[in-house]
Amino acid sequence: MKSRPSDDSELHLGYFFPSGKTNFLYSDEAAQRTPDMTKANLVELAQAAERTGFDSLFIADNWSGHQRAAELGGHQAPAYHAPLLAMALLTATEHIGVISTFHTTHHKPAHVARMGATLDAFSNGRWGWNVVTGFSADESALFGEDFVEHDKRYHMAAEFTDIVFKLWSEIEPIDVEGEYYKVHGRIKMPRPVQQPNPLLVSAGASPAGAAFAAQFCDQLVTLASDEDALRAVDTRLAEATAATGRRVATCPFAIALVREEEGRAEEEWEQLRKSVNPAATKEIAADVLGSIESSRAQYESMGEEQATMAFGGAGSMLKLIGTPEQVAEKLISIKKNTAATNLLVNFPLWSPEELEGFAPVFAHLREAGVWTPPETRDYSW
Ligand SMILES: Cc1cc2nc3c(=O)[nH]c(=O)nc-3n(C[C@H](O)[C@H](O)[C@H](O)COP(=O)(O)O)c2cc1C
Fold first, then answer.
1. Cα of 317 to ligand 1 centre, how many Å?
2. Is residue 123 situated within a structural domain?
3. pLDDT tens digits along 123-173
4. Nearest CA to ligand 1 atom 14
């Protein structure tokens, strides 16, 4: 049995594991420079993230989308199915946590309860669930389902997650005749090692999304490009958790490019932005901006073309671009001035070498007293 830590005096960093050659900066140059997505490269990457000092790996996942130009260019492609990749990475590492995506829409609660219990028990409490409702009509069509509207998806997700929690905690059969799901019985052993349940993360920041996080989750991953935007999310989340009493950490989603030489990271970033692929970005933006309220709101004041290119250039993400010292200072300031205790970090030029280049940031954070190496703790978040 493993209990969740309650100490939030430190910063913990998660690594956004590649679910494609590029993620969130749809640059052709980046797609060419990142390694092939082979077993050897991905296992080496996970081990490098663990060595460098990341607490966890985060594996995003979607089922579908008509993204042919994106696939051809390696943008958000190829993407391995998250729970299968999670098991492989848990097996290849020692202590790092692995958070994998499961959709509530399309699955049944017993599927997720059984797969999650397997991942968590097998890894001795190193698994987390990124709960997503799915936002794509293409995904629903793939499963032969009607596309469910936004807030109803969260109502369904709440009933779904409540049942998963029951299947994890009850040894005897359960009887649920819900509005959306009927479940009679129990899942086979094992049960999860983490108590009261494995770590739950979500990323929906709409009022319905924040209410869901406040009811079930431990972290809310959020798009916020500066401290003001982050504090606005903190406030919304604090209002939502006041009603539930749950402790939910705000987890900003950041993109990192770190170089020792002053000005070099900014130069390289601008260079990558020049090669953002418009066709691929349009395809991905059409899926996301059409369906995700929080993303759409961020680009509302722009024209379609401008919004698409801003989206393809990681427009809404927190930027960790600079020397190790500059990046560490930014992180220390976030820790001081917002409620964030975790950050999820994406590297546009992902590789083991990029992760090693980030190691001096952890050294600065340690010196400042806001970080300790994960292997000295008995938990992964
Ligand atoms: C960092 C991040 C990762 C996400 N990963 C996934 C994912 O893997 N699969 C998915 O279907 N949605 C994913 N989403 C979308 C969210 O689950 C959610 O649908 C979206 O943020 C919109 O929620 P909202 O309408 O409540 O704001 C992600 C969002 C963010 C910000």
1. 13
2. yes
3. 999 999 999 999 989 999 999 999 999 999 999 999 999 999 999 999 999
4. 203
Instruction: Report the domain count for the chain.
Output: 1
Residue 266 maps to a domain: yes
pLDDT digits (tens, 9 = 90+) for 280-337: 999 998 887 766 666 666 677 787 778 877 888 888 899 999 999 999 999 999 999 9
Q: Whose C-alpha lies nearest to ligand 1, atom 20?
A: 204
Q: Which residues line ligand 1 (CB under 6 A)?
A: 60-62, 101, 130, 132, 134-135, 203-206, 209, 221, 223, 253, 292-294
In this structure, what CATH number is given to the domain that contains residue 304?
Answer: 3.20.20.30
Cis omega (within 30 of 0) for bond into 196: yes
pTM (two decimals): 0.96
Cα(74) to centroid(ligand 1), Å = 20
Task: Express each pLDDT in 338-376 by its tens digit.
Answer: 999 999 999 999 999 999 999 999 999 999 999 999 998
Q: Ligand 1, residue 60: give the atom nearest the CA.
A: 8
Cα of 32 vs centre of ligand 1, distance in Å, is 26
In a domain? residue 381:
no
Ligand 1 atom closest to residue 202's alpha carbon, by position in its atom list: 17
348 occurs within a structural domain: yes
Domain boundaries, position 32: 2-376
Percentage with pLDDT > 70 across the chain: 98
For residues 265 and 287, which has the higher predicted lDDT (pLDDT)? 265
Expressed in angstroms and rounded, the spacing between residue 250 Cα and the centre of ligand 1 is 14
Q: Which of 130, 212, 251 has most ligand 1 atoms within 8 Å of CB, for mutation?
A: 130
